[in-house]
Design brief:
There is one protein chain. The chain has 294 residues and is mainly beta. It is 0% helix and 39% strand. The chain has no helices and 18 strands. The N and C termini lie far apart (127 Å).
Amino acid sequence: RAQNNTTGCWSAGSGSVAVTITPTLNTAAATPTPTNGATGICYAGAGAVNSISWGAVAGATSYDVYFGAGSVPATVTANVATNTYNTGALAANTTYYWRIVAKNACGDAPTSATFRFTTSGSTCYCASSGSTFPNGISGVNFNTINNLNTAVNVAYSDYTYLSTSIVKTLSYNLRVFVNTGGNYTDRQSVYIDWNGNGSFADAGEFYNLGTATNVTNGLTSLSPLSITVPAGAITGSVRMRIQSKYNSATTGPCETGFDGEVEDYMLNIVAATPCTTPTAQPTALNLTAGGSII
């Protein structure tokens, strides 16, 4: 019932009053993503990380986020509405630190633990792998890379510790050797990430190496394949991916689970040395006696 403040009379009937209770926050934010202490976090390329998240705190209406490289920053991004924070682009080979304070109208929760993660030192790429059947790539030769007589019953081989320097605008021959595991035909594909963006899907990054049939260590039908380094390629390290698949070409650079093998290598692209224009012409010809003919 309600009372009239002027007449003092009470109204007939009954009613209800809704009371909202805001709980005090006693729990600190936890369960961070990326997980605390994680390393090799992708900063660019396939699967690049550009946000962090944590478990939602019951009763919280917003969060203060402290995030930075090298140490936890004194500055804060206040009143983040959800349990996700956009970090923006991250840097390579860098450790980031962060912590969270959950908030509501009654005040702040205890500050979370300080979380950290470290980014990878190079661009990340999509996974690709074949199978452990006894057919696959038995050797690769490209400039100074000469990785021969390798095992073929391996789904994926990371040979990015093998690298070679190549010069923009120059051409190099790629030779790939294959074991088909019997009287079968395998098809080979090559991808090179010329622009270093972590994707093999850009124009000019795919090469067809042909086929190989009934060989134990034979060259593909299009080997040696001449590959010219584009003038517009980045200066720096990029990845080369070689695939060999039974009976058909792979569906793309990220196919997995097929009958065959995948190998990755590193290429170090350097700029071509510019020509130097002579500053003067010769003014005299000096002859030295060395025989009866000049």
